[in-house]
Design brief:
Layout: H1 2-13, H2 15-31, H3 35-54, H4 57-66, E1 80-84, H5 90-96, H6 106-117, E2 122-126, H7 141-151, E3 159-162, H8 168-179, E4 187-192, H9 196-205, E5 211-215, H10 232-254
Parallel strand pairs: 1-2, 1-4, 2-3, 4-5
Helix pairs in contact: 2-3, 3-10, 4-10, 8-9, 9-10
Amino acid sequence: MFFFISKVIEVFLIPSNLIALLGLVGLLAVIVARQRLGRACIAASVLLLAICGWSPLGPAALMALENRFTKPVIGRPATGIILLGGAVDTHISSERATLAMNEAGERLTATVDLSRRYPDARIFLSGGASHILGGNANMTESQVAHDILVSLGVSSQRIKMEERSRNTCENGTESAALIRPQQGDLWLLVTSAYHMPRAVACFRAAGFEVTPYPVDYRTRGEAELKRPTTSIAVGLAATDLAIHEWLGLLTYRIAGLTEELFPSAR
């Protein structure tokens, strides 16, 4: 139930959807002769579109997430590598009978690189079907990721996976239950840099102390905050992504699923 409710609420809180809804409410208000309300909603919609689309707001919010954890200096062999779902498109993979990565595909290529650097490390994939509508019940993120990794040269015998998790906290609990980490183990957690704070919070809540290995950066550096975005579409996409993560951090903490609102390195 939490999964379903959180997905529905998110639809209305993501900036791009909220902006469009405000504009539609404004148009409807004008049609029914509520001129003052209509003008206010339309003005708010246009103002939010400009702020979220052109200003550095989205990149700044993303950068705060991405800078929370840095690439680790690893001085000993890794016990295993955990790859979280979110790097593949199960819809396209299913409908087109192909193996489709999305814009977070660096998670997969980084896992291949780590598998070569640590040939004795186990590889664990965590990701089920995280969609509410339009999903294929026979296709999970772990399945697609497994096939992509094998096609890139990773031995299938090294890979284990779970296909039940639908969100990040379920990634943590399901992974902890199946891996059963031992004291002294070194497990590298691979996910997008902007997603790492939420992932770490969830794994820590599950009692699984992992070493963050962030990849798939979406921002460049401080200079990016001194200039407008190249287009409204680019800025709005960054704002949507950042708000999705910040809402996730806040929601999980309020719901008691995590113990830290914004975890940091230990």
